[in-house]
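Exercise 7. Predict the joint structure of the components listed below.
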Amino acid sequence: MSNFLLAWIVLIPFLSAFLLGVMYLFSIKIAKIPNIVFSVIGISAPFLSFFIGFSFFIQMIGNDEIFLYKAFRWLGVDGRDIDMGFMADKLSIFMVLFISFVGGLIHIYASGYMKEDKGYGKFFFYFNLFIASMLLLVLAHSPIIMFIGWEGVGVCSYFLISYYYEDSANVQAGNKAFIANRVGDFGFIVALITIFYYVGVNGFDYINLEANIENVSPEILTFIGITLFIGAVGKSAQIPLFVWLPDAMAGPTPVSALIHAATMVTAGVYMVARFHFLYDLIPNVGLYVAYIGAFSALFAAIIATKQTDIKKILAYSTMSQLGYMFIAVGLGGYSVGIFHVFTHAFFKALLFMGAGAVIVALHHEQNIFKMGGMKNKTKLVFFTMLIATLAITGIPPFAGFFSKDEILLTAFSSEQYLLWSIGIITAVLTAYYMFRMLFVVFFGKNYKENRTIHFVPKSMTMPLVVLAIGSILAGFIGIPEVLGGQNLVGEWLANWKHNSLHVTHNTELILMGTNILAALIGIFIAYKKFYMYDMKKVPEFTGMVWNKFYIDEIYNKLIVDSIKHLSVFISFKIDINIIDKVVMGLSRNFIRTGQYVSKMQNANTRFYAFTMIVGISAISTYLILVIR
Amino acid sequence: MADSLLSYITLAMILFSLGLLGVISRKNIFIIYMSIELMLNAINLIFVSVGRYYESIEPQVIAMVIIAIAAAEAAVFLSLIVVMYRRKKTLNSDIFTVLSQKDSNE
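Solution:
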C-alpha cells in the first residue's frame, strides 16, 4: 500500500520549510543565496503535495475507501494511546487539493510580490510552514493531531501578520491575532479533554470517536459541541472573536490571501464538518452555530460598506462569507459549506492578489478613494478582479453563485426563514460593497493621471489568470440538479450531508432568482452611488459603521483595560505591599535573629560552661523522666 | 555494701558539683583548671568504687588510664596558661575574647 505517502503530503512542505529556514540563516550569516533558489524550493513544495493528494483523489473515485497511515505511537497512556496518524477520506482529500493548489498559486504570486524584500527566504519559510500546518490539520486522524496543525497555523499567522516587524502597529496586529486565537483555542482544548475523557474510550481517532459517540449523554455532547465551536469561532473570525481578522491585514498581501482564502480561517468550518457525527446528534447547537454565522455575515457586511482600506473591505467580506459557511454547516449541510469554502478559496485569493497588484502598482497605496482609474492602466488585473467580484456577488455562472445559492437553499429548506432572510440581506450588502470597491478603484475619476504606475511582474499576474479561470469554473462542479447539472461536490461528500432537501424545483428556481435579484440590487445601488465617482476629495467618514460599531474600543475597555488594571493592581499594590514585604521581611528577620544569636558567642567561658550544663541537665532530665 | 556505694557516689556527685560551680563562678584560669580536675577526679572516684562493688578489674584499669591522661593534660594545660599569661599579663578568663563574635566582627 502507498498509505505512507499521506505522511509525505505533510512532510514535504515541512521539510522544505526546514530547508528554507537553514538556507536563510546560511544566506544572512555566511554567503548570499539568490532569491530564485528560495522561490523554486518554496513553490515546488505545495505543488508536490498537490500531486500526491491528487493521486489519492484518483484512488478514491467511485468508492468510499478511507486511507489511514499510522506513523508511530506518540503517547501510550494505559490503553488510551495516541498515535501520530494521518487519515484521508473524501473530505480531507478535497481540502488538501485546493489548499495545496491555491496555496501554491499564492506562493508564485508571493515570489513576485516580495521580490524586493530582504527577508525573502524567511517569508517562504513561514509560508511553507503555514501550508504544512494546514495540511496536517486536515489530514490528521485524531483531534489531537489536528490540534497540532491548528496551533501551527496560529503561530505561522502570527509570524506572517507581524512580518513587517519594524512597525509596532504590525506587531500589535500579530499579537492581537494570536491572543484572539488563544481564546478560541481554550475552547478547543476544553473540548479535546472532554472528548478524550468521555468519548475516547476505545481510541482517540475519528473512526473510534464516531463509533463511540452514541454512548455519551446529550448534555456532554452539547458541551463538547459548544466548546469546539468556540475554537472554530476564534480561528474562523466569527462574532465575538473576529477582531483579529481586519487587523491581520498588517501583513504582506500574499499573507492575507493565504490566510483568507485557502488556509486558517477555513479551519473552523472544516472542523465542524469533520465533527459532523457530533453535530448531527445535537441539532440545537448546530442552529446556534448557524445563527452566529448569520449574524457575523450580516455584521461584517455592514461594516464593509463603509471601509476605505481595500484590504479591510476584503477582510470583512471574508468574515461575511465565513458566516455563510457556518450557516450551512450549522444546519447540517456540511457538503454545502465545504463547497462554499472551495469556491471562496478561488475568488477570495484572486481578490486579495488583485488588490495586492493594485497596491503594488500604486506604490503601496491602500485607500480606495486615492486610487481610481485603474481600469485602463492594469487591464488584466481589472478583468480578473471583475470576475472575482462577480463570483463573490453571486452572479451566474461564476463560482460563488452556485455555492451561495445552495447555502441559502439549505437555510430555506430547513425552514429557518430568519437565517435565509439574513442571508439575502447580506447578499445585497455583499454586492453593494464589492462593486463599490470595484467602481471606485477601477472607474473612479483619477486626478493624478500622470503618476507613474509601478511595474507588476508576470509572476504576480499569471496566478491571477489561473485563479480567474478557477473562479469561473469552480462552480460548475456543483451545479444543482434543477439546472440539469450534476452536483459533483454533493456526491463526493455524500457522507457529509444528512438532510435531503425537500423543496420543489419551482421553489428552488424562485430562490435562485431571488439571489440573483439581490445581487443585482446591490450592484445597482453601488452603480448609482459610485460609478465614475468624483475623487477630488477623499471622503471623510464618521459614525457607528465606519468605526466598526466601536467593537475594538468596547473590547479594549472591557477586556484589555480591565486586565491592565488588574496587572497594575497586582504589580503596584499586591506585589509591593504584600509579596515584597513578606519576602524582604523574612530575610530581614533572619538577619536580625542571627545577630541576636551571635551575641551568645561572647567568649565568656563561664557562660559557655553554664549553658552546656543547662543543656546537659535538660537532656538528662528528659531521658530519665520521659523516656526512661 | 550497697549503702557504702551510695555514699561513695554521693561524695563523687558533691565533688563534681563543686567543680562545676568553680568552672562557672570563678574568673581565674587556674581556679577553673583546678575545678575541671576536681570534676575529673569525681568521675574517677565513681569508676573506682563501681569497680570495687562489682569486683571487676576493667573500671580500675580505666581509672588508671584517666589518671595517666590527667597527668599529661596537666602538663599541656599549665604550659598553655603560661603562654596565655605572657600574652595578656593576666589570668582573668574574661579578657581572652579572640574567638568571640564581637572580635571577629571588628
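Discussion. Chain A has 24 helices and two strands.
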